[in-house]
Amino acid sequence: MTQEREILTYELFGTAMRELAQEIINDYKPDCVLSIARGGLLIGGALGYALGIKNVSVMNVEFYTDVGEHLQEPLMLPPTPKAVDLSGMRILVADDVADTGKTMELVHEFLGDNVVEVRTAVIYEKPHSVFKPDYVWRKTDKWINFPWSTLPPVEKQV
Fold first, then answer.
1. How many CB atoms lie within 10 A of CB 107?
2. pLDDT per residue as tens digits for the range 28-39
3. Contact 110, 136 (CB under 8 A)
4. Count of domains in the chain?
5. For the purposes of burial, counting CB atoms within 10 Å of the CB of 12, is it exposed (0-12), middle (13-18) or buried (19 or more)?
C-alpha cells in the first residue's frame, strides 16, 4: 500500500453512485440491495434510491479494525439476515471497497444457493482483492479516505 491516499468527497460520492447505478441497471435489475455494514450502508442506500429499489437490507460484517489493520478473517455480527428470507431474489451486494475481498467472499458464500442470483458492487476495488466484484466505480491501490470515516467520532461536549 502506498502512502498516497485516494480522497472521496461527498460530492464525488454522489457522482460515483449515479455512474455505478447506471452501469448496474444497464446490465442487471436486482430485487434487493444487501448493504454490508458499516462501509456499505451509504452505498446500499444510495444505490437503492438510484435504482428505484425499496427493498434494501443490511448485513453487519467486521473485518478492519484500523488503518491497514484487520482481523484474520471477517466476522458476521448479529443480527444476521436469514438467507431463506432472501430466497428467490436477485441480490445486489453493496460495499465501499473490495480490499482483500474476504468480506465479499464471505457474504457471497453465505447467500450461496438460497437466492436466484448474486451480483456485487463496490466504489473501489484493490488490485490484490481475491474477490472480483461485478460492478466497480474505480480501482486503486491507495488507502481510501471516505468522507464518513475520515474524522474521529464526535464526542459529547460539556
1. 22
2. 999 999 999 888
3. no
4. 1
5. middle
97 in a domain, yes or no?
yes
Owner of C-alpha cell 443490511: 58
Residue 157 inside a domain? The answer is: no
pLDDT score of 1: 46
Domain that holds residue 10: 5-145
The model carries a pTM of 0.87
Q: Is residue 150 part of a domain?
A: no
Domain CATH code at residue 87: 3.40.50.2020
Contact 91, 30 (CB under 8 A): yes
Flag whether 154 is in a domain.
no
> Which residue matches cell numbers 444457493?
113
Which grid cell sits at 115?
437466492
Mind spelling out the 3-state secondary structure of the chain?
A: CCCCEEECCHHHHHHHHHHHHHHHHCCCCCCEEEEEECCCHHHHHHHHHHHCCCCEEEEEEEEEEECCEEEEEEEEECCCCCHHHHCCCEEEEEEEEECCCHHHHHHHHHHHHHCCEEEEEEEEECCCCCCCCCEEEEECCCEEECCCCCCCCCCCCC
